[in-house]
Amino acid sequence: MSEKTREALLIYADAIDAATTQLRMNLGAETKQQGSPALKFDTSKIVWKKAEGNKGPFEIAEKKMNDGNSDYVALDRFLENAGGRVSSEGYFIWQFPKKDAVGRKALKR
Question: Is the pTM of this model over 0.90?
Fold first, then answer.
């Protein structure tokens, strides 16, 4: 498999995963992580930048922008243990497929 094909498949898989999660949220179902766990890091100390996706605005924290940031590292580990995504403290937070960035979007209430 070529690298280009692999990359396209990873993007496609991420899109399906995001769509499934959004559908579950719209139906009122819990995501993989049950409840709203307390975060073991301070997300306000992570460098976030605003971004726009197919489904509207979100924030992204790139690994390279947070080099040496212990809160980013803790968030990254937390997501790894939570299956790559979690809903907590009013946000849906996910890990990008290449694990080079983390995204977050405010949950609709």
Answer: no
E strands in the chain: 49-53, 56-62, 85-88, 91-95, 101-106
Tell how many helices (H) and how many strands (E) occur in the chain: 2, 5
11-45 pLDDT tens trace: 777 777 777 777 777 777 555 444 445 567 888 89
Instruction: State the total domains in the chain.
Output: 1
Q: How many CB atoms lie within 10 A of CB 24?
A: 13
How much is the pLDDT for 107? 85
Write out the residue range of the structural domain in which residue 80 sits: 3-106
For residue 61, the number of C-alpha atoms closer than 13 Å in the C-beta half-sphere is 22
Amino acid in position 27: L
Nearest residue to 35 via CA among 92, 87, 91, 107? 87
Per-residue pLDDT for 77 more than 70?
Answer: yes
